[in-house]
């Protein structure tokens, strides 16, 4: 335990934990599965309205979470108690603040804790769920459909035929290439750091700016049809509507290049944003894709009000990491070839 | 009676002419208001000119890429600059010429880099304004660039950036945006016109009719220019009911160009 961690525990986690607890429902209230569970309030909260009458979701939010998408195999219950959830948060804080061993890769990589980028220094809603997935009730992705299995095998074969992970830029992960952060989706999930979002509402639109990759979704609310089926986009075609307190966003027209959790381009995503109290937004999403899974599945993340501002994330413009990775791979190949040549004809 | 009428007509004509000649027409337009009583600039906007090729006057010219023929040839256009030309310092003018000569290698647009200001406003793609009392967002098609204009939390740029740090305020019908904190990596156009990280831009957006804004920007950079200079143009509303900012995730399109030479050689 280093001094940074002590400062963290003293200065943030404990007061923050008290704040989380005060906004959390008693676990016992939240035992039924589905939409009205985690983060629900004893007394219903009504969000303030924007001047044009939309429930007001505006502000800077963080969707940081330490809850895994799928329930770990050794966990059998759907909810932790508040005490257990808090213990888990402390454990993660301790792990993220562990002193790295000098000279290791971890040591020369970014120090997230130094810049407040780690998950436990920023705003984080305490999620009592043991997995983000709440449907199916076992908290795990449904089994792959027959087509899903076939497609997964095809994808694995295609990946293999493309060669090694650093053979060409196109073999690198989308996030490293600054094209799309896997976790920003859609659907929008948190990552290890930089989980800032800004929501703004204007008549007829909800805008969601993701700090990572300065990704913006401008969601029209006017009931216009989706893009024509031949027009596919990385983040799809998204259309929103209000159902009472809840913003419902339907996304279609995706590509197979992103393939969220292996999904096909025909994945249909329904997202629901509900402000459940002053500082908490409940984000739920349902994925339907018979080409991948035997049945639809749903997950939930709580977003917490955060302090801004968001900064410009010029990922591609400063992508020295990608360049150096590729250069490094070519240098290593050259060295290996020279070594091999030396062994062949020793002078 | 008739004489009086004729005099009145002449007098009112004279008044009208006076208003037009003073350029007062745009000033008299009052834009619809947002809920907080400010001119409502929400909408999708686009410039309609050839400044993205060269903000100075220029004749049509061939494409720098032979294979693109007429499809990517330079369209001729007139200057958007007050006074016609950019007041470069001599060394800076030499650098501009060098940029132009090497534009295929140097133009940040070709690499899908964030376009900077004011270039983002007159690229040949639409941008959307989402307006609130505290923030006004400008969301651009090209590279998905975003500007946040802070209307009440004015502060100095916390760090240099591609799109700069923008503080805004209202002057009657006009949104005034003061932007600093730029890096020195962006250009003004495809012709190599450039600036340093001392760039300071004051923009004025004024509603001139229901469907167009008058846009002006004063550009100051003592490292590169001998004096501040001004550009102006109308920005037009995209009126199609279906208008939307389409995804233009251009990083994917430039990877082979930027990193292609680092591909593993088949022989290795």
In short:
With 347 residues, chain A is an alpha+beta fold. Chain A has five helices and ten strands.
The overall pLDDT average of chain A reads: 86
Characterize the main sheet of chain A: 10 strands, antiparallel
Q: Unreliable segments of chain B (pLDDT under 50, ≥5 consecutive)?
A: 13-26
Number of beta-strand segments of chain B: 9
Characterize the largest beta sheet of chain B: strand count, sense, and whether it forms a barrel.
9 strands, mixed, barrel
Seen as an oligomer or otherwise, the chain set is: heterodimer
Structural class of chain B: alpha+beta
The gross shape of chain B turns out to be globular
Considering DSSP H and I runs of 4 or more, what fraction of the residues of chain B is helical? 10-25%
Overview of this structure, please?
The complex is a heterodimer of chains A (347) and B (268). Chain A has five helices and ten strands, in the order αβααβαββββββββα. With 347 residues, chain A is α+β, with helices and mostly antiparallel strands. The longest helix of chain A has 25 residues, at 320-344. Chain B is an alpha+beta fold. Chain B is 17% helix and 24% strand. In chain B, strands 1-2-3-4-5-6-7-8-9 form a nine-stranded mixed beta barrel. In chain B, a hairpin with a 2-residue loop joins β5 (165-171) and β6. The N and C termini of chain B lie far apart (100 Å). Chains A and B meet through β3, β4, β5 and α5 of A and β2, β3, β4 and α4 of B.
């Amino acid at each position: 335990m280093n001094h940074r961690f002590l400062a963290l525990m003293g200065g943030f986690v404990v007061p923050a934990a008290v704040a989380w607890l005060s906004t959390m429902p008693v676990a016992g209230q939240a035992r039924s599965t589905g939409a009205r569970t985690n983060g629900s309030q004893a007394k219903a909260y009504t969000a303030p309205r924007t001047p044009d009458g939309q429930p007001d979701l505006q502000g800077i939010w963080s969707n940081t979470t330490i809850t895994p998408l799928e329930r770990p195999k050794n966990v059998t219950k759907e909810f932790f108690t508040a005490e257990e959830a808090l213990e888990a948060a402390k454990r993660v804080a301790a792990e993220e603040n562990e002193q790295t061993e000098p000279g290791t890769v971890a040591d020369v990589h970014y120090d997230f804790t130094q810049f407040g980028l780690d998950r436990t220094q920023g705003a984080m809603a305490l999620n009592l769920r043991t997995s983000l997935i709440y449907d199916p009730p076992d908290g795990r992705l449904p089994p792959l459909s027959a087509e899903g299995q076939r497609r997964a095998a095809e994808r694995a074969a295609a990946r293999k035929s493309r060669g090694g992970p650093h053979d060409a830029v196109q073999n690198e992960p989308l996030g490293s290439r600054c094209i799309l952060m896997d976790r920003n989706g859609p659907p929008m999930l948190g990552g290890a750091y930089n989980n800032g979002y800004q929501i703004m509402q204007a008549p007829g639109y909800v805008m969601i700016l993701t700090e990572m990759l300065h990704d913006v979704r401008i969601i029209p609310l006017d009931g216009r049809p989706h893009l024509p089926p031949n027009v596919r986009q990385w983040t799809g075609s998204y259309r929103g509507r209000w159902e009472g307190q809840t913003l419902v966003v339907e996304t279609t027209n995706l590509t197979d290049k992103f393939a969220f959790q292996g999904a096909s381009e025909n994945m249909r995503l329904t997202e629901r944003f509900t402000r459940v109290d002053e500082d908490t937004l409940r984000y739920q999403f349902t994925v339907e894709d018979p080409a991948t899974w035997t049945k639809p599945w749903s997950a939930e993340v709580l977003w917490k009000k955060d302090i801004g501002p968001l900064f410009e994330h010029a990922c591609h413009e400063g992508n020295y990491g990608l360049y150096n990775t590729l250069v490094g791979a070519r240098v290593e190949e050259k060295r290996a070839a020279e070594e091999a040549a030396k062994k062949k004809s020793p002078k | 009676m008739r004489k009086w009428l004729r005099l009145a007509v002449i007098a009112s004509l004279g008044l009208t002419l006076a208003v037009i000649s003073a350029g007062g027409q745009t000033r008299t337009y009052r834009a619809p208001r947002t809920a907080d009583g400010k001119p409502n600039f929400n909408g999708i906007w686009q410039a309609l000119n050839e400044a993205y090729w060269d903000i100075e006057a220029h004749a049509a010219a061939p494409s720098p890429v032979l294979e693109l023929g007429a499809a990517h040839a330079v369209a001729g256009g007139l200057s958007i600059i007050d006074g016609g030309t950019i007041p470069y310092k001599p060394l800076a003018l030499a650098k501009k010429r060098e940029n132009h000569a090497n534009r295929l290698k140097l133009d940040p647009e070709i690499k899908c880099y964030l376009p900077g200001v004011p270039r983002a406003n007159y690229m040949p793609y639409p941008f959307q304004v989402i307006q609130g009392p505290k923030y006004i967002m400008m969301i651009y098609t090209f590279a998905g660039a975003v500007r946040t204009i802070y209307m009440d939390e004015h502060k100095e740029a916390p760090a240099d950036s591609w799109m700069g740090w923008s503080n805004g305020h209202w002057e009657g019908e006009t949104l005034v945006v003061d932007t600093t904190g730029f890096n020195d990596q962006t250009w003004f156009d495809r012709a190599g016109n450039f600036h340093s990280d001392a760039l300071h831009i004051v923009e004025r957006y004024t509603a001139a009719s229901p469907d167009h804004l008058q846009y002006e920007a004063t550009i100051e950079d003592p490292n590169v220019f001998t004096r501040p200079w001004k550009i102006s143009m109308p920005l037009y509303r995209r009126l199609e009911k279906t208008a939307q900012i389409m995804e233009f995730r251009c990083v994917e399109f430039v990877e082979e160009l930027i990193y292609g030479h680092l591909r593993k050689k088949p022989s290795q």
